[in-house]
From TrEMBL:
This is Diketogulonate reductase-like aldo/keto reductase. It holds the Pfam family Aldo_ket_red. Residues 32-267 form the NADP-dependent oxidoreductase domain. CDD domains: AKR_AKR5G1-3 (cd19157). It comes from the Bacteria. Gene3D superfamilies: NADP-dependent oxidoreductase domain.
Amino acid sequence: MTAINLQDTTTLHNGVKMPWFGIGVFKVEEGSELVKAVKAAIKHGYRSIDTAAIYENEKSVGQAIHEALTENKLSREDLFVTSKVWNADLGYESTLAAYETSLNKLGLDYLDLYLIHWPVKGKYKQAWRALETLYKEGRVKAIGVSNFQIHHLEDVMKDAEIKPMVNQVEYHPYLTQTELLAFCKEQGIQMEAWSPLMQGQLLDNPVLKEIADKHGKSVAQVILRWDLQHGVVTIPKSTKEHRIIENASVFDFELTNEEVARIDELNQNHRVGPDPDNFDF
């Protein structure tokens, strides 16, 4: 089912409801700009916020959440907050400690989703055991991974008691990841897109422009709509209020099957981020 409004949710395999649409804060520094952006997103109806330990901005995200809850008369349960454990902290005890650190910085009692940020060889299985512990203790509502390929997922699931609920990966029209998406759907793992707009590199694409013009929409809106119609959760990043509003205006039109197929055909297996099978950090 395709989302029909900004607060629509997908149900993860453990029954937790996750918004189809959220705001990402990658590379936004701590400070007033970030606080304003997150508060604007919540004010305009966003309910999902995605951060990570390595972004070094959890304090400002937490501040924004607390201020927005009061100002918009919302409760903590109305929001879906995600963070991620960084590579240096992958390990059983160190992942448990990293979770506490993230919670403290955010000023929250729990996270809705906690992810392993990258599949560091020889380390992610211990980290997964820690996430399972946090989940079984009721400290986190859902657990998952980020940047995992099919073979990483298979490797984790071989020994896991709990299957990952989410896999957040680079996903956009030049990197359609069709095999990975099919595998995740088959396994009941919700796929989520980071860098859905390919850091702005797709905005001049003629095919996307043509489709956007036809719908009276921006190229960004067409791409985000394409994500949703593929059943992929999406978290575009922006700090500008008008852009935050524009990004979310994707529930009042639908791409035809033919348009979706034309966008699929733009695939070049081209990454703007690191390759999950070949990174050195």
